[in-house]
Each structure stands twice: as structure tokens, then as C-alpha cells.
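Lab manual, section 2.4: Encoding a predicted structure.

Procedure: take the sequence of the chain (137 residues), apply the prediction step described in section 2.3, and record the output as C-alpha cells. A sample record is shown.
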Amino acid sequence: MAAASEQTVLYVDKRNVLHSFDINNGDDIWSLILKDEIVCEFAMNSNCVIVGSKQGLIQCFDQTSSRLRWQCRTDGNATGFAVDRERLFITNTIGGVEGRNMDDGSLAWKAMTYGAISKSPSIVRWICRRNGNWGRP
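Recorded output:
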């Protein structure tokens, strides 16, 4: 698994170590041994790296220092993330969708669907209406 932001490239190796490299020169910034196996792609915003592992453990690490900022649990295993400045959105294997606060991981809301969700959620800010005009959903 790999992901990139404006500053760093992240990947998890076979030994379950999360690595952060400088996107401009490839220098190793930090490495972190993860407790559990990663079960979905991780997500990043300008400050955080979000990792989902077995037994529903979600961890938020500081993107610069690798310091654990917070952790929480979701029902089932996480299957995907979408993140913005204020919220983390999580889908899981039992059909749940959660909105969590990025400051501390606390649950803002939770919804259930009709079965397991296998893809990441998307954040939609604008939609194209039938008449061709753009607007908020």
C-alpha cells in the first residue's frame, strides 16, 4: 500500500512497518512498526495519516513526527477512508458508515447500510445537476 501528499510518500512494507519519505528527495523521514496488519488503504490530510487495521482499530498519526494523535475502534474492519480538515469518514465490513472528528477521533455520526461495504467513501462538494449547472448536493 502506498499514498502521497504534497510533502510525503507513505508505504507499508511486508514487515508491517509504515515508512514516510520526503516527496522531493526520497529522504527517509520516519518509520513506525504497526501493531496490527493493515486491512485497507490509508488516508492523509495536511496533518495526519489514518491507518485501519484488524479488529476495527483506527489510528491517527502525526504526518511530520509519527506521534500517535488518537485511536478508536469501528465495527468490523475498516474498508476505506475519506478525510478532510474536520472529519474522517469510514466504511466497514458490516455495512457501517461513520463520521468522526479529526481532532480526537470521537464519533460524530453513524449510519448502517444493507451489507458489507468494500470501497472507500467519497466526499462530494459539488454536483452537476440535470440542467448542466453545478451546485451543492
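Check your result against the sample. The longest strand covers residues 17-22.
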